[in-house]
Amino acid sequence: MLDEATARMDPRTEERVTRASRALLAGRTGIVVAHRLSTIRRADAVAVLSDGRLVQHGAREQLAAEPGRYADLLAADRSLPGTAGATATAPAGAARHGGAVADPGSPLLHRAARRAVPTPDPVPAPPLWRVVLRLALAHPRWGLTGGAMFTLATLGSATGVLTGWLWGLVVAGLEGGRTPWGPAVALTVVLMLFPVWIAVAFRTYPRWWSAATLRLRLGVLRGQTMQRRGPRSPAGEVVARALDSDRMILYVDRWVDVTNSVIVVVVAGLVAADVRAAAVIGGFLLVCAGVAAIGAPFAGRSGRIAADARARFGTALGSVLESVRTVKLAAATGALRAHLADVDGDRVRATVREYRVRTLLDGVPGVLLQGAVVLTWSLYLVGTWPLATALLVSTTLNGAGFLGQVCAAAVTEAPIARRWLRAVAPFAGPADLTRLPPGVDLVTGAAPAPAPVEREPLQRLSLEKVAAVHDDGTVGVEGVDLDIDAGSLVLVTGQVGSGKSSLLAGLAGLVGHEGVIRWNGRAVSDPQTFLRPGQVAYVGQVPRVLSGTFGDNIALGHDRPVQDAVGDARLDRDVAAAGGPDAVVGHRGIRLSGGQVQRVAMARALATGAELIVADDVSSALDVRTEIELWAALRRRGSTVVGASTKRAALARADRVVVLDRGRVADEGPWDELAARWSHLAG
Q: What homologous superfamily does CATH list for 453-681?
């Protein structure tokens, strides 16, 4: 079963694929879905569908001879210029135009030239200390309040500094034969307040954690939607890196706890009135950090491997979800499941290895804690300090075991946090990960409406010696000189691999370009920002459809009328049959046919009211009659369109057709003048 397998091919490539498919289907039953009449001219039988119903079925010659939908399609096809030669074989010799030679027998793909592409300056990762400080101070109502409550809870817990000091006073009083009512009452009050402090901390601090996590993830995703050309990274990798932001928040939380540790050391020295008490507690924490510094390279390496494994799994999973229909039709589910299991196995093993290293390093403070407690009571036995101080220090050390782990983690997790910042810096671009855009409220979900787009009405678009250069240096097309007046329809045609899509991508600012692009005579210095939505609307070969309604996909959340765009895209009957603009198109448009997807994308572009529409092969999945109606509607609308097509119905209605061969312009002019020489390119 072949579903529109030749829709985007020129006739020469289509003929080769058809011959190969005949050999493949020898002795088998084949079902071919096609809108191109040339694709089915060798079919034994033809079934014609209309509005989801079978309206004709029989031998091709029989249907062509009797009135009906198939005969109407043939009549519409024969009315196009260049039809007589369109299905004929190309001339044996080379067709010459303007000194350029186009050899019909040449390979389909020209040898792509390569240019040395200037490597853009890498996006620097922000300093780790600055990110930690800004996130710690973000949302102070929750972060600072929760941190302060945790500090009080640390000081006033059963193993806290204040509790140890008060226990020491109680024991000293009893040892002296007194009844220490004051210290006993104070101890009771502190222990009773502990649940209050911890409750307030648990109420406020998680809110800071959630808001800070969303802030980082918003920074990554915001960078992906800014008007700039970022690295070509799979969406799954971007999502996986963004989800890893919780590790950065965990690292910030480590430093909040380190701050608590410093406060504990200072308070211990003050209440004991003995700097040696602070020295023992502080020394324990410093030794924990020092030992962790030795293990930091191992923790950093295991964290890096685990993060990369998670990114690879996200990329693989995203690719599978995007191609799930193809996988099912190819009966490759088993092989793909095995591949995902291998990738996921690597992720699990790397994560387990990372946690083993972290657990080993986290266990070191527990061993050191025992030595510190032994040291504390040894100093008491030799008379270095009184019993009250020994109780204060030992109690605090028992509670500081967790703080020792935190101080160690602040050292071992630093390489992981730095690497995450370096990994997401290209995704976030110039956006500050720690700053919210003006007007954005993460709590209520409010965000300001997009600023009105300033437009410069198009009068003439000029290309002077333009070359489209891909990120890897491949030159898709070069030396293009072209003038496009407002309201005109200019189409580019050529064999597969001749550079059509590259030229349009360069014109839309999606790939780099050399030469000069002029908008109303003024050179466009930065196509990525000038040729932006509103100024230029781009419709790709494989449009993306969102899971939602027709209206959602066309308006994209903007308050703009869509009815006229739906009509001009020849989508009005489809939308009405589905139940109106609020009809659901299914997950990523699964309920739509290929032609409906193309017209949804065209309606989306028309609804923007853009000055220029760049359309890459948007009618390849349309039947002849619908295609004629579409191009006629665009002409009536007066839209300026630069597109690519290898279909006669489109080329016949263009003001000008540009023929590309091996990445260069081989001919141009109205199609009725070009058809005699280039009819083998149009089907």
A: P-loop containing nucleotide triphosphate hydrolases (3.40.50.300)
